[in-house]
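Researcher: Re-running this chain for the archive, since the previous output was lost when a drive failed. Same request as before.
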Amino acid sequence: MEGQRQRKSFYFCRAEDALAFLRTATAPDAPACIDPTTPPGEPITLRCWLYTWLEVEKDRVKASTWRHYESIVRCHLIRLGDRPVSDLNTAEIEAFYRQALRQGLSAGSLHGVHCVLHGALHEAVRQGVIPSNPAHLADLPPKPKPEATSLSPSQQALLVKSSQRTPHGVC
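Model: Regenerated structure tokens:
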């Protein structure tokens, strides 16, 4: 129906992110997000680029993957701010990663954040928005490798014994 009010919901992981969004969304001179076809010379902010990239990815990946990407952008990457995407550098990305680790993000989760940022910036390079991907050279902490555990001889014997009692082996 025309003339009917459209509702839009936004979700944030931190209260300060929600307040920052409200300040920019309600400001009379708040810049609109610019798509990749914006003429050269007009800066594209990282926030706008991330959401533009998400729209592109919506048609490329499964819905569950897209929801995961969107939550990473909304909960983590949005903290990188509203600077022009062309101003982002490797040192800032590494500082962001160190801060995220200090705030309790695990190394494994940080690798997921890095993959999303790297993918978004790779698309920016592909579209000619930036000349190179600053996330490509960013150092990450190593992902912890799970320690392999093995069954003790008594546990092995119990496993073999119980598998012989069931018609299809180990269930």
